[in-house]
Amino acid sequence: MKRLLGIVLALLAGCGHSPQGSGSSGTASSASQGSRNIQAQPPAPLSQGDQGPKADPSTPLSDYTRADDPSWLTYVYVSRLQDPPNDDEKMKLFSPKYFNESDAFKKHDIMTADLPTVNATLEKYRKLEYFILQTEQPFGTFALLKPYDFQSQSFHIDGCGQFAYQASQGIYLKINPTPSMCDVKVVDTNVAHTIESLRANFHLKLMFTYYFFVDGIDSSKNQINATATHLHIDFQDLQQDSKTVASIDVD
């Protein structure tokens, strides 16, 4: 926990921002603010929580929680720590007012007022297992989506082994997709032709919506490990203000 706080507070102090500043979000517009997508890396070792329940793709979509709270990743991570932070550490992570206040009496009043909400939110995220995250393509689309394969009637997603996402507070989310999610089946030749034309001419934008299960955390890396259960992809035309030309579910 000290490593997490050291990294988070050092980043915030260096940037002059409050803890919640410009965190990650599950919406397309805010996912790119205060967070960034990074290249796939080798899977992390099993750690805290990874020996528990496993992802169940049959879970109703209504049981998934949309990742739209600016601090959702930090809440998910901290709520699963075996060595939880103390009240002061929690307030520094989740209360901008507390983090930026130097008066001890005012900090005490802020903690009295806000700590119950912080604790309740941590408990809520501790119980949540299934989430939805929407984000733009993690790499350049031309390199990410391979040319249409007529034999398999699909587009192969290169580097599909693992999706990595970083929040502004230094927490990483790594989602492991199933092998079938690496090939996007497009049987309709007209749709396939449209996508391929946009891809080949660098006019294609991909919007991913990941449905995933939180397996556990790796506290040595400030990392959340997750397994994808469903993947929805919107293919958009950059020439037409990101108009969606096709939407495909990949399971």
Bin the helical content: 25-40%
Which quaternary structure do these chains form?
Answer: single chain
Total number of strands: 10
Largest sheet: 8 strands, mixed
Provide the residue-averaged pLDDT: 81
Biased composition (Low complexity): 18-35
Organism: Dyella humi
Region (Disordered): 17-66
Protein name: Lipoprotein
Structure notes:
This protein is of the alpha+beta class. About 30% of the residues lie in helices and about 25% in strands. It is built from seven helices and ten strands. Strands 1, 2, 3, 5, 6, 8, 9 and 10 form an eight-stranded mixed sheet that branches. A two-stranded antiparallel sheet has the order 4-7. Strand 5 and strand 6 (about 170-175) form a beta hairpin. The chain has one domain (about 1-45, about 60-250). The model is unreliable at about 10-45 (pLDDT under 50).
Write a concise synopsis of the structure shown.
This protein is of the alpha+beta class and 251 residues long.
Write the layout of secondary structure elements.
Layout lengths: L1 H14 L20 E3 L26 E2 L5 H7 L8 H8 L1 H5 L3 H24 L2 E7 L4 H4 L9 E3 L6 E4 L5 E5 L6 E3 L3 H12 L3 E15 L4 E15 L5 E8 L1
Parallel strand pairs: 2-3, 6-9
Antiparallel strand pairs: 1-5, 3-8, 4-7, 5-6, 8-9, 9-10
Helix pairs in contact: 2-5, 3-5
Protein name: Lipoprotein
Organism: Dyella humi
